[in-house]
Amino acid sequence: MLAEFNNDAQKVFEKVDTQIFGDSKSASKAVAREIADLIQQKAAENKPCVLGLATGSTPIQMYAELVRLHKEEGLSFKNVYSFNLDEYFPMEPDALQSYVRFMGEQLFNHIDIPRENWNVPDGTLSEDKIADYCAAYEAKIDAMGGIDLQVLGIGGNGHIGFNESGSLANSKTRLVALDSITRIAAAGDFFGLENTPRKAITMGCQKILEAKRVVLMAWGEKKAGITKKAVEGPLTERVPASYLQEHPNATFFLDLPAAAKLKRVDTPWLVDSIEWTEQIARRAVVKLALKVEKPILQLTTDDYNYNGLNELLAKYGSAHDLNVKIFREMRDTITGWPGGKPGVDDSTRPERAEPAKKRVLIFSPHPDDDIISMGGTFQRLVDQGHEVHVAYQTSGNIAVADAEALRFIDFVNDFNGQFGFDSANSSSVLAEAEKFLSGKKKGDVDSDAVREVKGLMRVGEAKATCRFVGVPVENAHFQRLPFYETGGVKKNPAGELDVQKTVDLISEIKPHQIFAAGDLADPHGTHKVCLNIIFEAIERIKNEAFMKECYVWLYRGAWAEWPIEEIEMAVPMSPEQVLTKRYGIFKHQSQKDGVVFQGSDSREFWQRAEERNGETADLYNNLGFVEYAAMEAFRRYHFEKPEGERI
Ligand code: F6R
Predict the structure, then answer these.
(1) What's the CATH number where 199 sits?
(2) What is residue 558's predicted lDDT score, i.e. its pLDDT?
(3) Which of 5, 409, 609, 641 has the fewest CB neighbours in a 10 Å radius?
(4) Burial 328-346 (b: 16+ CB within 10 A, else e)
(5) Same domain, residue pair 228 and 306
(6) Are 457 and 478 in contact (CB under 8 A)?
(7) Ligand 1 atom closest to the CA of 152, numbered from 1
(8) Count of domains observed in the chain
(9) Catalytic position from the list 65, 87, 138, 164
(10) Ligand 1 atom 9, closest CA
(11) Helix, strand or coil for residue 590?
């Protein structure tokens, strides 16, 4: 647990016990430890231990820790009975997305729980049997004496189990209609929203709330908004997780990004007396300026005092001194020279002036993240004469629509015929692909040939962007990291080969600058895995002479920007540059007009990028800086500092 956020005085605004951890791994271990202790205590009393279990991405690390405790520390599950919260309907138990399968793969197949002891709602029933089945499910839980410990995740709409917004606290186990937020979140697992079930069987809120102990876990910034509502907001059926506020023994286990919007993390000065670090001071001043809608340099002593910031003023002397300090710091983050401006004093600039021509390595997790997330900066680096390389970390092949792949294969076949090439091979690839795709069921992994074609399409698009920006195609490095190449949505964990390929590439290029997608908060996404691979590679070579000269800059993925006060380099863009970036993004034709993995945002990627870069420019402008059309933002990763002091 993080000592700095977890003293009782800081919890005054929270309506349910909440523990904040530095990362989801340590929080998951704490939950697993509590479950293990309960199982062992029950075993010592010769009693069964009844667990309520959840699926989804959240509990995966916790289940892995339980498996480890079983394998390495002899934890036995022989006295455990479990009842899962929910199952999609309809759903076959061996389907890829089935929760029966999930529980087997993540936990039950690796421990000694007897098969007859675990229960997952049955998604194969005919609809007229469900009501009786649900009543029997509840009766079975009651016959065991109720649930001793219930594990929960939280949906983006505040659901627990599949009790969507509006579910009453006394709701029973039942068939429910999934709401659109839930279906969109699940769409990736089902290869598109149109394949995603509309219904599910869920344990009702009543049974969940009757559990003697409830632990709810939430990880990542995507959960920060809803977690705040559930913990600090009113108890309401709009947010079923808020029912836990009245539970006598419930705890929220959060990682820091999921806790980021709680008052004790976001505005700790309003909660308790705090130790003012430079970063918290900057955050407080920026928040104050935005709240009172004044530029930083116009904040007055009264503004500080009326908004709970008198301690901060006391530390810095006067509003004037503090305003000027923060204004200068933020002003110095703005630069049109992301590779450093040659021949000038660089002491207050984000990048060094020398060497004037730098070698730059941009890591792009998918083939379009470079242009979407830092297209303006990419263009400037090339225009300002730096030697720019791009490493495309994954093939991105699962995100191409089947019909598009077929169109390309068809084209190649026609091309061969038209220009007299031997088209026997391309005809057979076309025939096989047509056959395969016509019989492809939702969620099926593509044939090797179709995957290969999809990957090649994305290679072509990335090369087109490089040509457009002015990077020679030999500087585009297609890494095809093996962890990604499962063909399915679920990826393998990163391995030695992923890291080695990355070490080799960095060592070959010896860059002065590395840019990487810094999605620190998304515990399972491809971006985070790609980032971890880079971090591990850097860790191995950080003592090489060239790495001592290397700055690592982190940009954010397509969805969110760094908090304004954390930005260390902001690269402005003119309206023309915004348009140029848009055309660069257009090169990724397979990712336009209704993509396979749209996520919860219906905007096209170029729209998201433009809006986000425009918002950053507006924020700077509101704080009293020059008005630009758009800005791209970066933070530095200080790998040379000891762990714990780095971001
Ligand atoms: C899963 C369940 C759901 C999830 C919730 C969060 O059995 O009942 O309530 O806990 O949707 O899902 P993830 O963990 O995937 O973010």
Answers:
(1) 3.40.50.1360
(2) 62
(3) 641
(4) ebbbebbbebbbbbbeeeb
(5) no
(6) no
(7) 10
(8) 3
(9) 164
(10) 161
(11) helix
What Å distances lie between residue 63 and 31, 32, 49, 155, 425, CA to CA? 10, 7, 16, 19, 47
Cα 49 to Cα 36: distance, rounded to the nearest angstrom: 10
Residues with CB under 6 A from ligand 1: 54-58, 85-86, 153-155, 159-162
Backbone angles phi, psi at 160, to 5 degrees: -125, 140
The model's pLDDT over 257-287, given as tens digits with 9 standing for 90+, comes to: 999 999 999 999 999 889 999 999 999 999 9
Tokens representing 289?
A: 């300026």
Residue whose CB lies within 8 A of the most ligand 1 atoms, among 162, 180, 219, 223, for a mutation test? 162
**Cα of 59 from ligand 1 centre, angstroms:** 9
Q: pLDDT-based confidence at 10, cuts 50/70/90?
A: confident
The whole-model pTM stands at: 0.84
pLDDT band at 149, cuts 50/70/90?
Answer: very high
Cα 158 to averaged position of ligand 1 atoms, centre (Å): 10
Q: Mean per-residue pLDDT for 155-182?
A: 96
386, 515 contact by CB (below 8 A): no
Atom of ligand 1 nearest to the CA of 55: 7
Atom 2 of ligand 1, residue of closest alpha carbon = 161
Structural domain range at position 242: 13-265
Which of 57, 89, 147, 154 gets mutated to test ligand 1 (max ligand atoms within 8 A of its CB)?
Answer: 154
For residue 230, report the distance from its CA to the centre of ligand 1, in Å.
Answer: 15
- Verify that 182 and 320 share a domain, yes or no: no
pLDDT digits (tens, 9 = 90+) for 493-528: 889 999 999 999 999 999 999 999 997 666 567 898
Residue where a domain stops, chosen among 265, 300, 317: 265
Is 164 considered catalytic here? yes
92-114 core/surface letters (b: 16 or more CB in 10 A; e: else): eeebbbbbbbbbbebbbebbebe
What is the maximal distance between C-alpha atoms in the chain?
82
Relative to the CA of 59, which ligand 1 atom is closest? 14
Residues 564 and 533 in one domain: yes
Sequence-separated (6 or more) residues with CB below 8 Å from residue 41: none
* 164 and 98 inside one domain: yes
